[in-house]
Amino acid sequence: MINCDYILERDIGKNEKRIFKPGNIPKELPNIVCIEGPNSSGKSTLLNILALSMYGSKSRKLNPALEKKIKSLLNSEYQALSFEVEIENKDRNLKIVSKKETNCQEINVYESRDGEKLRPLSPELFEDKYNLIYDIPSNPTDRLREFIIEIREEQQRYGNKVSSLIEKVRKISKEILETRDLDSLENLKNQLKKMEDDKKDLEKKRDHVKLILDDLELYSCYEYYTRYSISCRRLANTIQDLEKEAKSEVKLGSKSTSQYHDLKYNIEREIGKMDEEFQKVTPLLINLISKTQKNHLNIWDRTHKKLYSTVNDLEFSRDLDTEITHFTNELTNIQLREGNNPALKEAKVVSEIVGFLKRYEDSNLTLPDVNITLQDFIKALENKNTQNKKIVERYENVLSAKKVLEKIEKMKTEIDKELYKLKQLANLNVENSKITSKVSELKKQISNYRKDYEEDHKKYEFYYSQCVTKNINIKEMSSEEIDKKIREFEEKEYLLSYIKHDETKLQNDILKLKKGLKEIYEEISDKRIYIKDHETLIKEIETKEPHKYEKYYEDLQTLYKKAEHIRGKFYNEYNEILKSLSDEKEIKDTVDKEYLVQVSKYLAKRVGTFRHIDTEYVAKFVDLVLRQIITEEGQIVRFEDMGTGQSQSAYLTGLLNTKDDRRKIIALFDEVAMMDSVSLESIYKKFRELYESDRLIAGIVVQKSDSVRIFKI
Description:
Domain Rad50/SbcC-type AAA: 30-245
Keywords: Coiled coil
Oligomer: single chain
Protein name: Rad50/SbcC-type AAA domain-containing protein
Distance between the termini: 13 Å
Organism: Methanosarcina mazei
Largest sheet: 7 strands, antiparallel
Structural class: alpha+beta
Helix content: 55-70%
Shape: elongated
Coiled coil: 178-252, 378-459
Low-confidence stretches: none
């Protein structure tokens, strides 16, 4: 029994909605049934809802046109669907229930067996148990290749099972190897012995290297402590002697040098005073001397700038005396020329009178006849004298400039005497420079010896610290005792190749030996770990019981190789053949011919009995590349020669011929109007056969008719 109740609400525009429910086609239908009816009578809607209720939207085999329709029922914004579907098998011991609410996308499918309560079925679990076939027999002969997809999927499932078998065999093989394997045990024991021998060899090598290293370090302590101790003493004595010699030489020249520097300092101080006078007189000369004398003023300026170099040159510029004389003569001429000016004489007289009267300025004396006070009279005289002030100032500047030039000349005379003495002392310093050069050379030697001393002293301290580390009280040993120790090392043959090297090479040898010794210790440590691990593993294996499949180990390896070969066939070679068949491409000559034969037989089995023209045939081989069916009688029926209805019947029958697939079938066939009653009877016959054997739980065939007619098949 099939029970389908649904409500489909569809927006038809202009804010109008239309409701679709079961009507002419009743809610309850037989398990295998044919539905005839006119267009838009709800036939296809019923099949779409039934397919959707059985997870048809998630099926990988659905016809693309039908898939689009049923997904539209689920996902379209303009319509809303709710349904409840119930399918019960002929014996009523199996029930499938599917439900969907209006405002929910989720479809819930349940299963009940033998009257038990409903249990949910996921899409994956549903596909494992049930085979939903929903199709329109369009282009039936071309779609025979869709059976190739089923073969590929089935092949994938078998390939996965073979992969599981391979993993199981690999796991068991590993367990066998990890349990008490006598060959493995013997191999482990051999490895253990080799590692123990290697460890003993390494320990011998370690002891030998350690002996050489210890002796070389002791030898270097005695040898180089002594060597650098002697070197440091020798260098210290040399430095001391050189310092004494340098000190003696410095004493010889220090006295005259001191006098020279003192006198030089005094001269520099006097020249500084002379510079101050230059700065006083130069502005006066610029204002007083005629512009025609510009050349003399430039020489005077250069002489001024070279003033301080006099100390080093030990003499003044020769232009100094010349220019002093020249400017003194020029100033004398100005003095004589302007000294007889009446205005100057008047200004002098007025100045003398004003100076005299200012002593009585505070009295209230009034001058007779002119009737003015003494203060007013002094002011009147001063106002008159203002007119001649520039003449007076110029004359006084001439006198001042002459005095400064005279002073500069006297200062030069005195400094010249001191410069003569400085020159005498400078001659003495030439002799002292030889002493200075010798002292400088001595200091350089002392510096170099000190660097050598510092380097040797660092090494001395290094070797002394090595002696302390090795408990050698070397400072308490006599030189004879140390020499004896050194000779003892030099007599050891295993040290000869090292002792002949210089210190740097010897220290490098010691470093290499240390590095090598460290590596040997690490190797020994690794060997100890490996030995311990092997001993533990051997003990574990010896105490283990043999694996229950140990005697089948070789058989398991053979099975593993064969399974790997089969899996490769499924996943690679056979898949390539199926792809070529599906694409109707030419098959390579190198492929497995037997596999092609079996695929052809399988397709023939799916087609089964089919009608061509007026005769029924049983398919023996189906060749998708040549597009032909070879019958049991040996006849060839080409796809292009088959009638539409007959080819549709053959295709749909092929969909139902699934003897190797034990899942229960739900078959929904739409638009079979091209098949006549004889062709349809093949479908009905297959429905009845599958229904009676409890392989088919629901089968519906839909075709177009002028009126609704429903009849049990």
